[in-house]
Structures are given as structure tokens and as C-alpha cells.
Amino acid sequence: MTNPKLEHSDEQLLRVDEVADLFRTTTRTVYRWLHSGKISGTKIGREWLIPRQSLTLLADSEVSHQLTPATGKKTTFSIAEGDHLLALAPQREAVVGLTAKVIEMGLQKQCRIFAACWWYHPDELRQLLRTLGLPAETLEAEGWLEIGDFGAVLANEGMGGVLRAWDNQIERLKQDSRPLWGTGAPCVVDCWGDEPAQLVEFEANLDDMLQPIENAVVICVYALSDFVPNLRRLGALISEHTGVLLWSETDLILLRPQQFSL
Q: What's this model's pTM, rounded to 2 decimal places?
């Protein structure tokens, strides 16, 4: 069904930020659509102007669809290709459960999953996946799921080793036609306690690596309670992501950068 907002808009030409608002995505994604030819536009100076009629087919395509979890209840947001999201669980105890839910969402989209375990053992994640009805070992054997022990990588090789591991996953996209759906939970205290500023540096570097990549989504899971002593650090992390995914036991809500504007 065609997006009604597009049919009834009086604007013949739209700016990049207006297209991002229509599709509930980021301006970075719209620029990717322009450069890849998914949509057409005219560049005047530094600004792109996009004909409204060129968006009609895009409104019906896969980039604007909603996710449907196994429960059959639709979520109220759309995750776009190239997203690098920050997901917040309310407490530390809920982080592994949210990570498992993120993996479930990626499998429903038929993506290849890479899950990085930072401060908890990979077997704990496998157990939660089995609880959700997802046979972790079978998925691993069939190449749909790879679980990495980033706690060990960080201890042995530092931040550079972690970034190289992500780079290896991105390089695999050249040989694997399936999109990459990555997730991890680099805990502020357990992983970066001695050098917390490196956490923001890590996320900034990862975001730079992901910017030119279209067929990948990475969702970084954190516990909101870990930021209570230092909310400024949370603000710095938000700026290195394309959106914030908030989770309770019953709901998922995605906030985009424009929704934080005052």
C-alpha cells in the first residue's frame, strides 16, 4: 500500500531530512538511497532535492516494512539497512534477554547473525535462545549464527582486536549474499572500567566502519542502569548511533535523532 503521507503531500521536491522523516529513518540512509540509485534526486549546491513521485515505489519496498516478531504482534518501528542502533535494557539482568530478542528479529529477516558476548559467557546466550525456541547450536552449524567471545578478544588484543573482528564480519559480506545482523553488549563497567572513554571511541570507530555499508545492521545493547552515575557518557554514545531502541518486557520503541531535538 502506498504511503498516504506521500500521496497527500503538497511538496513536489523534498529535502533529505524530509524524506528521512517520512520513512522514519536517518538522513545517512537517504544519502545511501541516492548514491545507490534507489531514489533519484538533483543536487543543488550542497543540498539534494528529491521529487515526491520518485518515492512512491520506495514506500512499498522492503526498506520501509515493519518487523513482525514470532508473537505475531507488530513492532511500531522500522529498522533500516545501515542502522547502527543503541539498545537500552532497564537493568543489567535484562541485557542478555534483549540481545536474544535482537537475534530473533534478525533471523526473522533472514539475516546472518553475528553476536558478540562481552561480559557474559556465550553459553548463557545459547541457553536463552533455546528458551525462545531458537536452536542455537543448529543455527551455528548451518551458518546462520556466529557467537564471538569479545571479552577474551578485548583482554588479549584490546580495542583494536575487537574492531578487526567486526571488520572481518563486514568483509564477509563480499562473499555472503545474506545481510549482516550484528549485536553485542560492551558493558561500561565490566569491559571499560579502567578506560571508560575508550567505549565512546570504540562506538565512533565502529560507526565509521559501518557508514559505507548498506546491507548490515548492528545493534549495541546496554543496561540503562549502568549510566545512572554518568548520563553524559550515555549522551556521547547516543551521538555515535543512528537511533536508540528502548525495551521493556512488552514493548520496543525506536527513537531517531530528530526526535531528540529541542
A: 0.72
Architecture of the 4-63 domain: Orthogonal Bundle (1.10)
Q: Please tell me what DSSP assigns to residue 80.
A: P
Between CA 183 and CA 128 the distance in angstroms is 15
Predicted pLDDT at 259: 55
Assigned CATH for 84-260: 3.40.50.300
Beta pairing, strands 252-255 & 243-247: antiparallel
Low-confidence spans in the chain with pLDDT less than 70: 1-11, 23-24, 56-77, 193-194, 248-250, 258-262
Residues 239, 254: Cα–Cα separation, whole Å? 15
Give the pLDDT of residue 190: 75
Site of grid cell 567486526: 166
pLDDT score for 163 = 96
Contacts of 143 (CB under 8 A, 6+ apart): 112
Give the pLDDT score at 258.
61
Q: Domain-by-domain residue ranges, the chain? A: 4-63, 84-260
What order of strands is seen across the sheet that includes strand 47-51?
Answer: 13-15, 47-51, 42-44
Of 213, 183, 195, nearest in space to 106 by CA: 183
- Closest by CA to 100, choosing from 86, 110, 89, 84, is 89
E-strand ranges in the chain read 13-15, 42-44, 47-51, 84-89, 112-117, 145-149, 180-184, 216-223, 243-247, 252-255
